[in-house]
Amino acid sequence: MEIKREFVTTRVSDGTAMRLYAARPVGSVAARGLLVMQEAFGVNAHIRDITERFAREGFLAVAPELYHRTGAGFEGRYEDFPSAMPHLRALSDPSLEADFRAAYDWLRANGLAAGSPIAAVGFCMGGRAAVLAAITLPLECAVSFYGGGIAPNPMNPGFLNRIKDLKAPVLLFWGARDQHITPDQRAAVADGLKAAGKSYVIVEFSEGDHGFFCDARPSYNPVAAAQAWPLTLAFLNTYTAAQEQRASARS
Question: Has this prediction a pTM greater than 0.85?
Fold first, then answer.
């Protein structure tokens, strides 16, 4: 499928300007929207590639630059995590939620068919962001790849107390070899979702490490990545297709 890709700029409610990397099918109105949440290393080549992959599946997909307040255009190297830390530490949940809303509103105003469903997917810090977006916005579903900081960790208090407000089903991918997101943290997320009576799917790859989906990282696991991709599409298609049918019935 031929796609169009570009950087666009939108305004956030706090008055800041935020770039989005947008990709969409050419020649038709997109029936589904998708927020693609970045890793700690910014809207880099890997995140742009993923955004384009989703566009080829028929989504109008946008990756918001969540570091726009402290490092617009930042693209960190995977071997240099310290360079991302000042931007990561400057994030707050209220500012992230404002960014999600701005990106969501941009999708609604720029090329989605009326009433079209919108979902979220995210990686690393973006995996946390995707779940937070499903608490904040009326999404159809969200997919989280190795999202640290949903449960408390040494760097983040998490937001398990807000799981009760989750508005959409979630799919969470973990790597059993991930030393950044410990087994007790993963269990706390599962327990929180279960206690809140939320709809969720959790998949743990026994050979997966943190970042297993990213082919630019040493931790890339091609087997886990190959299995996670169709599961992601199936999950997104299940919930966005249902909303598409409801929107068609209303029209």
Answer: yes
